[in-house]
Amino acid sequence: MTRSTDTGINRNLTSYGDPEFSKYIRRAFLAAAGYDGEDVDRPIIGIASTASDYNPCHGHMPDLIEAVKRGVFEGGGLPFVFPTLSLNEIFFSPTTMLFRNLLSMETEELITAQPMDAVVLMGGCDKTVPAQLMAAASANIPAVQVVSGAMRTGSWQGERLGACTDCRRYWAQFRAGELSDEQIEGVTQSLCSTPGTCMVMGTASTMASVVETLGLMVSGGATPLSGTGDRLRVGVRSGRMAVAIARAEHRPVQLLTRASFLNALTVLHALGGSTNAIVHLLAIARRAGTRLTLEDMHDVSQQVPLLVDCKPAGVGYMEDFHEAGGVPALLKALEPLLDCSVPTITGQSLGDYLKTVEPPQSWQSTIRTLDDPLGETGALIVVRGNLAPDGAVLKVAAASPELLAHRGPAVVFDSAGDASARIDDPSLNITPDHVMILRNAGPVGDGFPEAGSLPIPKYLAQKGVKDMVRISDARMSGTSYGTVVLHCSPEAATGGPLAFVRDGDMVELNAGERRIDLLVDAAELARRREAFVPAPIPERGWRHLYAKCVLPAHLGADLDFL
Ligand code: FES
Prior knowledge:
The chain is 37% helix and 13% strand.
């Protein structure tokens, strides 16, 4: 692509065969919008908005955008807000993951097709931030990420609670008959007390913290809650920062180095963060042309203990993490494990920045230190075996220790719909020893939904069974817990080994040996493989393009041509 060397409003000119005419006509149309020459000669800062009535996680975004615009004006720039697709986890079928790459493509094209010297990426809910970062890496113009911020915690019958780890816990209790209809309605009205992103260490909170670590956010920008003055001040600072990096021409790819990704993985593990962040980091690194693999994720995990006490790995919430010092204090605690030569968004090195940051203070207990960690190293591991030759992910910190070495008979569900239709059917005779297999829920199979943490069958839940081994090519929500092996690659829909499992086959998980195996002899597996017929892919539209071009989970599930 040929890019204009002009700046500001003269960037990315409309092609009329006469560049001077293109500039003139732009000024004429902007004059109609009330902008004079002094306005349009400023650095132009695009603001990519994902505000939508369908997205309560971004409910305060209009106010936040006004704060960013004020910062841009104060910095001497001219802000232009442009709308993009908004992805909310709760409102998209079958899953927002099917649309992450679409938002990414759209954002990249809008950044490169319109005049802007820098872009402020306004996201928050799980897929919005990774999509925007993928776009920023590909477009490679100066970029600063702003997130909408987490919700405040709610309270029900005296218990502090929040989305969505507590959503799942109470729903499991309701399924087990421990909560009445009236009680679950009371919980429903109390879980999400304000607009904002989920306030546990789910994917949104994890990605916000990871982006601050990568240096694409102003310091302290990840954790202020939605709708607070603190959050608005982050918006103002980000607007000013956008003008500064536009002038300095700091580009995302300068920040997205292998060293900064390894730092981001260090933070991910110290947070006890979401497994989804692994897929997103692989995709962002690929866009930036930076080498990063699943093995890097595993290797870093072995070095980093859990330091942050937030659900689902701990007991606290994002407001606790924020009050305890947020990402800056965590980075200070992790300093010996970080590459401090990497640049931050200001151009200053991480090491120089951390000289100005206080370590975690003794009055708080949410951010621990390396000398006094909350949990062991190795909270997230990569397992392989004949069920996942290219790897699968297991969040050991969220699993039941007694199930980490387990052998049991398979019970197979052919899709998320099949599982929801049959899982509670007592005639399946599922026992706590069974290994529940969900297949055709990978990127090609079903857009990669968060269906991997299958519910415990009702008749077992009512007997007090809380966890079972579950294996799938799906993802799971960052707020989930259980002994759940995810992202098996290659996926069943493309002929991956999950496609060949049959009810009653013995399956073995051995987390200590990083193995996940189907205990069926090779000749029988070869016979089953020969009979495999791939399911047809959707015939038209985005779903056709996605299914044809999406890469496997272990490569980040981006489209192969992006
Ligand atoms: Fe939007 Fe959890 S549903 S962040």
